[in-house]
Amino acid sequence: MTTNPRENPTRPWVGIGVLVFRGPDVLLVRRGRPPRQGEWSLPGGAQRLGERAEETARRELREEAGVEVGALDLLAVVDAITPGEAGAGPRFHYTIIDFLAPWLSGEPRPGGDVTAVAWCDSARPEPFDLWPEALRVIGLARRRLGLD
């Protein structure tokens, strides 16, 4: 049995998320592994040792969705904590740095640990049943972009 070093951590993991906008549409991915396996989410993933946050963002976008973006703008920091068994601490704990970026090129296609990709009308994300924090940062991005 293999163990996931991110499960039942002794410290938070740094995750990088990217809100990729093409006009009013935001790019979403369906997660292929825990946490949130099978759920729609913003693209992103864990930062590697020695990798700058912006490098992580661009790498994850290429791996998960095959897209390139323009300038990355820091948007929000989110704590994603999945409770564990009683008294055992969290099952997962990520501190996620979310960037906002305009789509430049590449037709989105699933890759890496992603099973599907989609452009979503950022004003109507309800069909994707997103995590409340994802909805919150989409709202922040819409305001920053002048879409609201």
**How many structural domains does the protein architecture include?**
1
Global geometry: globular
Cα(first) to Cα(last) distance is: 49 Å
Number of strands: 8
CATH H-level homologous superfamily name: Nucleoside Triphosphate Pyrophosphohydrolase
CATH architecture: Alpha-Beta Complex
Encode the helix/strand succession as letters.
Answer: EEEEHEEEEH
CATH class placement: Alpha Beta
CATH fold title: Nucleoside Triphosphate Pyrophosphohydrolase
With helices defined by DSSP (H or I, 4 residues minimum), what is the helix count?
2
Strand content: 35-45%
Judged by helices, strands and strand pairing, the structural class is: alpha+beta
Mean pLDDT across the residues is 94
Q: What is the chains' assembly state?
A: single chain
**What is the makeup of the main sheet?**
8 strands, mixed
Low-pLDDT segments: none
Q: Helix share of residues? A: 10-25%
**Gyration radius over CA:** 15 Å
